[in-house]
Specification:
The complex is a heterodimer of chains A (271) and B (89). With 271 residues, chain A is of the alpha/beta class. Chain A is built from 14 helices and 8 strands. Chain A has an 8-stranded mixed sheet, sandwiched between helices. In chain A, β3 and β4 form a beta hairpin. Chain B is α+β, with helices and mostly antiparallel strands. Chain B has one domain. The termini of chain B are far apart. The chains are: A alpha/beta (271), B alpha+beta (89). At the A-B interface, α7 and α10 of A face α2 of B.
């Protein structure tokens, strides 16, 4: 049975695209057939994070408008055989996505893949509502910071009202993914803790990803962070989240980025 | 003095949490998503007070969300005539 999963947040810059690439790659490494779909028409970036920017020929808008068949637009990842990308259009605007068109593309993808992962644009406009429209599961990416938590709460409200499932009286499974987490700052009570964020948002936790330089490094070289630094704390957070998505019970260990002692001292003084 | 402040400094995470709780309760009711806990608390209290007098601050409603099942815990203190107030569930 296939799952449609939306990676969403409301707020921009919290790590939706990084998380889409990492979770997609982690699931593909487990042998699942995965397609990641970029819904950010006009500001696509998933192709860049996956290192596939020079291989884009057709995109989701071409498929919706009938200028290309779906298999022509799908880009197979060079490292992971079971991972594919459906890119967004860079030259059009968000109105190029139609509800009917998106619905047909998702239905076709469901037939071919175990996981259809939709990378939502920021905001609560058309692109974001179309990205969540057909979702069975939503991963709500949240930073331990007030504006991100507030926007996530707004997104939870939309998931409960504007999705196909909500309209049919069912519900979308909403899961919290905390990113850019810093356990040391939490210990100093400078940052919202996992429990505090969960208490405010009232949705179950799927994973915690620490703040780390690994993320920038991975995007610099165009490789999902789970492949770029597979033994790092960020990858660990995403691997655990992916295992939970496939139904495994994984104890929550908050992965910590091991910085050299000098780095630790320095960051403490800089904080 | 600066050193003293450094040791005294208390983190602002609790301020963030409190501000969010107040703000989101308000925003949820404005967007038609009244807080389920608040609604349950009011309705449970309403049902109980039909029969016994309960002080509103003696009702504790707690929800623990889980992946497939959430648990709702309700604690109500009902004063009894003969004995001192005792906790019932």
């Amino acid at each position: 049975m296939s799952n449609v999963l939306v990676v969403t947040s409301g707020k921009g810059g919290v790590g939706k695209t990084t998380s889409t690439a990492a979770i997609g790659a982690a699931l593909a490494e487990q042998g699942e057939k995965v397609v990641v779909v970029d819904f950010d028409v006009g500001l696509r970036n998933l192709d860049l994070v996956l290192g596939a920017e020079r291989r884009v020929v057709f995109d989701i808008v071409n498929v919706i408008q009938g200028d290309a068949k779906l298999p022509q637009a799908l880009i197979r990842d060079k490292r992971l055989e079971t991972l594919s990308l459906l890119p967004a259009s860079q030259t059009r605007d968000k109105d190029a996505l139609t509800a009917d068109g998106v619905s047909k593309v998702i239905a076709e993808l469901r037939e071919q893949f175990d996981w259809v992962i939709c990378d939502s644009p920021a905001g609560i406009e058309r692109g974001a509502t179309l990205a969540m429209r057909h979702a069975d599961i939503a991963v709500v990416v949240t930073n331990p910071e007030v504006s991100s938590v507030r926007d996530s709460d707004r997104i939870v409200g939309l998931l409960d009202s504007k999705t196909e499932r909500a309209e049919q009286g069912e519900w979308v499974e909403k899961l919290l993914l905390i990113t850019r987490f810093d356990a040391q700052r939490v210990a100093r009570t400078e940052m919202l803790s996992i429990e505090e964020i969960q208490e405010v948002l009232s949705i179950p936790l799927i994973g915690v990803v620490p703040e780390s330089r690994d993320v920038l490094h991975a995007s610099n070289i165009g490789v999902p962070v789970t492949l770029a630094k597979p033994d790092g704390a960020v990858a660990r957070g995403y691997f655990d989240a992916a295992r939970r998505l496939t139904g495994e019970t994984v104890d929550l260990i908050v992965p910590e980025d091991r910085r050299p002692l000098f780095g630790k001292l320095f960051s403490r003084w800089a904080a | 003095m600066r050193l003293l402040n450094f040791f005294r400094r208390k983190g602002s995470a609790s301020v963030a949490r409190d501000r969010l709780q107040i703000l989101l309760a308000h925003e949820r009711s404005a967007t038609g998503r009244a807080d389920l806990l608040a609604v349950l608390r009011e309705e449970i209290l309403g049902a109980i007070t039909k029969h016994v007098r309960v002080a509103p601050d003696r009702v504790n409603v707690k929800m623990s969300p889980g992946r497939t099942v959430s648990t709702l815990e309700i604690g109500i203190e009902i004063p009894t005539a003969s004995r001192p107030a005792r906790r019932a569930a």
